[in-house]
Amino acid sequence: MAHYNQHNNRSQNKKYPQKRSSVLLVMALALLFGCGAQKSKPLPGRVFIYEKSNLDGSNKGKIAVYYEGFGQIESFKWHEGNKKGTKVSADMDPNSHTVKHFEVFRVDHLGNEQLSAVLDVAEDGTIKINLGEHEQLFDAGPEQWHSYDFDFASLGYAYPMIKEKDKPISFNVLDLDLKESPPQLKDFGEVEMRFLEQENKWSRNLLKYTIDGPGLDHRGGHIWFEKSEGYLVAFEIEKPDEPGYKSGKLLLKEVLPMKKQDWPAFKKAALNKGH
User: Fold this and answer.
1) What value does the mean pLDDT take over residues 105-112?
2) Rounded distance between C-alpha atoms, residue 240 and residue 242, angstroms
3) What is the 3-state secondary structure (H, E, C) of the chain?
4) Is the pLDDT of residue 168 over 80?
5) What is the largest CA-CA distance in the chain?
6) Mean pLDDT of the chain
7) Which of 30, 51, 90, 145 has the most C-beta neighbours closer than 10 Å?
8) Beta-carbon neighbour count of residue 88 at 10 Å?
9) 71-77 contact pairs (CB < 8 A, 24+)
C-alpha cells in the first residue's frame, strides 16, 4: 500500500512526535515519489480554470489555479458578478510535496489585496497559524497532508510526482475548524484514494479514484486526474469544503498559458466582469 501518511489511524488528540528520523523519511518519500526521476512536470506557466459548485450544479463559482514555477501554487476564487475574491498562495516542500508556507488574501476589483491568514511549517513539523491578531501553534502535524478548503490544489500539485498511481494513496486533511471561535487548525483525519479505472471523460484520458475516510467525515466520493500529466481534473465529494456549499464538485473547464506579468491583470479582469 503506497501510503503518503506514515501515521495511520491516529486519534485527533494524539500528540505527534516532535523529532523524526530523517533516514526513514527519505526512504518513505523515495518509495512514494521515486528517486528524483519525476522532479518536474509541465505545470509551471499554466493556469487551470475550474468550475466549483454543489453536486447538483448550484452555487457555481470559478477557481483559477496558477503554477508560477516549480513549487509555487496560487489559487484564485471568485463568483462572477462579485467584486471581491480570495487569493491563496502556497510554497511547496520540494521533498514531501506538501505545503510549507501559505498566505490567504482578500482581493477586490481594483487589485487591492488584504492579508487575512498566514501558515508556516517548521522543520520539525510544527505549524504556526496567524489569523489577524490570533496566533496558533499546531504541534508536529502529519507527514503528508492537504487542505480540502484549498480545493485539493496541493494534492493536484503532488499527484504527478507519485510513483505508483495504482496503489492506495493516503494523506490527512488539515483545515480550519470554523465551528471554533476564532477558527482553529484541525487534523480532520486520514483520507484514502483507491484506484478504480482508466476512463475517457470530459474529452480527456483520466485515472479515476474513490476518495473517502475520516478526513472527509466518511462523506467522500470520486476524484479524477489526467492520465499523462497527472493534473487534477475533477472531484465529486459529498462533504462540502466551505460554508455556503452543501457538497463539493470541481471540474476543469480550461487550461491556459500564463506569464507572471499577466497574472494580476487576469485576476482583476475576472472581478470586473459584469460590472
Assistant:
1) 95
2) 6
3) CCCCCCCCCCCCCCCCCCCCCHHHHHHHHHHHHCCCCCCCCCCCCEEEEEEEECCCCCCCEEEEEEEEECCEEEEEEECCCCCEEEEEEEEECCCCCCEEEEEEEEEECCCCEEEEEEEEECCCCCEEEEECCEEEEECCCCCCEECCCCCCHHHHHHHHHCCCCCCCEEEEEEEEECCCCCCEEEEEEEEEEEEEEEEEECCEEEEEEEEECHHHCCCCEEEEEECCCCCEEEEEECCCCCCCCCCEEEEEEEEEECCHHHHHHHHHHHHHCCC
4) yes
5) 56
6) 85
7) 145
8) 24
9) 72/44, 73/153, 73/154, 73/157, 74/263, 75/150, 75/151, 75/153, 76/107, 76/267, 76/270, 77/52, 77/151
Given pLDDT bands bounded at 50, 70 and 90, which one contains residue 11?
very low
Cell numbers at residue 169, please? Answer: 494513496
Note the pLDDT of residue 77.
97
Q: What nine digits make up the cell of 109?
A: 476589483
For position 14, what pLDDT does the model report?
37
Q: What is the pLDDT of residues 78-98, one digit of tens each?
A: 999 999 999 999 999 988 889
Backbone angles phi, psi at 8, to 5 degrees: -90, 145
| Residue that is written with C-alpha cell 475574491 in the block | 85
- The pLDDT assigned to 41 comes to 54
Rounded Cα–Cα distance for residues 216 and 227 (Å):
25
Return phi, psi of residue 85, to 5°.
-145, -175
Chain center to CA of 149? 7
Partner residues linked to 255 by β-bridges: 48
Strand partners for 207:
198, 225
- Global pTM reads 0.84
Instruction: Round to whole Å and give the CA distance between 256 and 254.
Output: 7
- Which is nearest to 99 in space by CA: 76, 119, 70? 119
Residue 50, C-alpha cell as written in the block: 475550474
